[in-house]
Amino acid sequence: MNRMLKIALGAVIAGFALPAFSQDNFPDVPDNHWAYSAVDGLKKAGILVGYPDGLFRGNRPMSRYEFAAAAFACYQKMMSMQEDLSKQIDEIKNNMPSGGNGASQADVDALKSSLNDLKSQVDGMKDWGNRIGDLEKMSKEFESELASMGVDVKKMRQDLSDLEGRVTKIEGMLPHVMISGTADFLMLAGHSTDDNYYLGPDNRLGGVGSGDYSIKKVGMTRDLSFLHELAFKFSGNNTEGPKWEATVVAGNMLSSGGFKDALGNMSTSDSGAGYSAGPSDIYVNTANVTFDSALAGQGFNAKIGRVGYQVGPYLWKRVDFTTVYRNDRWDNGDFYFDGGILAFNFGKASVNVFGGTNSSVTSNNGTPLNPMPLGAGSVVDRTLGVQLKFPVGEMGNVNLAYLWQDTDNHFDGDPLTAGTQPANRLNVFGGDIDLKFDKISVWGSYSQSTTSENTSNVLDSGNKAWDIRANYNGAENWGFGVGYREIENNFMAFGSWGRLGNVWDPVNIKGFNAKLWFQPNKGTKIWAKGEFDKPKDTTAGYALAGYDRIDSYGIGLDYQLGENWGTMLSYEDTQFKGAGLVGDDKVRWYTLGFNYGLAANTNIWITYQFSDSDFAAGSVIDPAGQGKYRGGLLGTQISVKF
After folding, report:
1. Which end of the chain is more exposed for a tag (fewer CB within 10 A), N or C?
2. What is the pTM of this model?
């Protein structure tokens, strides 16, 4: 049989293979098989019917008659979908409010809902042209087999020809440029308690006065900030050839100086300051073109322009310091750079080469969007990386990478001997592995960093990190996990491996961690977590070396009140136990959150967080030197998608 026809049929039936989760599947396809959802979806679609004994027999070669039957089932499914679409269009026309009827808001809302459903179905037909062409070829190849089954092959071909014309007409009605986006509005109101500031997990303060009150602790009415962002995403609608997209953002969530922004999510160098709106600004978040091709017989993909990319939490991943604002551009962990990503696919394995300039990614006012500081006054100007990903059978995947990161200015390569070890390059290499064995999953990571002056190493010791974790999902409603990690003092990767209290991406630690979650019913989830660390090296000057141990706890409740309503409650407590002349530090937060879906494309989040923290005199982790922090922060965010 023609190999290309086999591939074509696979592409056609894959379009109807919707994920399914019921147990009404073939008995010889277990629910933990990698193809379970696809086979189940094809069965529900009527494309795969199995054998008279009810079995699928996936290891048995398919005959020409069975192949023809599957192609005919695809044709019937496609025609059925087209008929449903035509009926829906006719129904919308018949229910269209006339000019003299004075249509009610309910009528308008119903019409908008119907049009949205119709648009979703039309969007799903964008690749029908190729499927129809494949089915036309199959109708010729299997004409005799189809005829022996009683199929009117001539009518089938005519139907496919008519359908192709209709799809082409519909595609021609779609705009050449698709426009979508989000509008986000955020109000933050902080207050002090007992003449103490609020302290957030991002080390920002609440209850901070301004003007004549700049040295005072104030209430919500005097510490009130309004922030906003409006993002437009533009993308091409072509189904063939290069694809392009761009996202442009305007708002006041960036400030004009240093490595900071109005929310503190890009670095901690502005810790100890309050929340405030920055000046109006515009920036290009992404703008790139994607090419799909083949090179040396292998799949090849290139994305050129301003792109976003990440490798792993201990290798290269942007930290999300923003605990009071939800937005994918800020929360997704990608670093954005001007350059490109080249992806080479070798079966299930892939090699990605990425690189470009980092310091050029700034707003219209010159504010860096995602700076990577290297010591005082230096930042990463250019990044080059190679990533290799490949599967481990059907159990999981391996991710390996090597990164070169250069600066045009020198930085102190050895943080313990500042000014004596100049460096201009940071190299990071390592990888992680993710495996799953039935109900047990295992994740592990190893990474190492070196600083150098061009090609001469400056610091190549105390610079490793490794982390291993295992999770057990005992049933649908509970599970637990345990782990252990060690991070040496001189490890310097731009990753995102979490926080201990108000200390982000901690180094010079070693210890265990654990988590537990329980879901007593569909709308309720209870969780608890803990981490128990000690300094890996107690040498003076090392990070966190003055503490005997660091214990961090958290517990929370997530409750879904209804289809559009939800709430959460959590408590977090991190205790830094001091040794010698260093006292004890305690960082605690109580958080209550509420979300409500105002409409299909609009959401509102309301969060109140209270801090109750104590730092010893001269503590190295006290962000503002205040000692005590008793206060709260009220955040309200409205997000609208269009």
Report:
1. C
2. 0.74
Written as six digits, the tokens of 165 are 């014309």
SS3 575: strand
Q: Model confidence over 218-273: pLDDT tens digits?
A: 899 999 999 999 999 999 877 678 899 999 999 998 874 433 454 544 444 446 67
Using CA atoms, how far residue 43 sits from 7, 17, 452, 494, in Å, is 19, 9, 59, 47
Q: 331: left (phi > 0), else alpha (psi -120 to 50), else beta?
A: alpha
Q: How far is CA 517 from CA 531, 554, 617, in A?
A: 15, 12, 37
pLDDT, tens digit (0-9, with 9 covering 90-100), for 100-136: 444 455 554 555 555 555 555 555 554 555 555 565 6
Fold of 179-641: Porin (2.40.160)
Which helix (H) or strand (E) element contains residue 628? strand 628-641
Q: Specify the amino acid at residue 335.
A: F
Beta strand ranges found along 382-508 (DSSP E):
382-392, 396-412, 422-437, 440-453, 456-459, 464-475, 478-487, 499-500, 503-504
Domain ranges of the chain: 3-174, 179-641
- Could you tell me the two tokens for 34? 């990698």
Question: Do residues 286 and 247 make contact, with C-beta atoms less than 8 angstroms apart?
Answer: yes
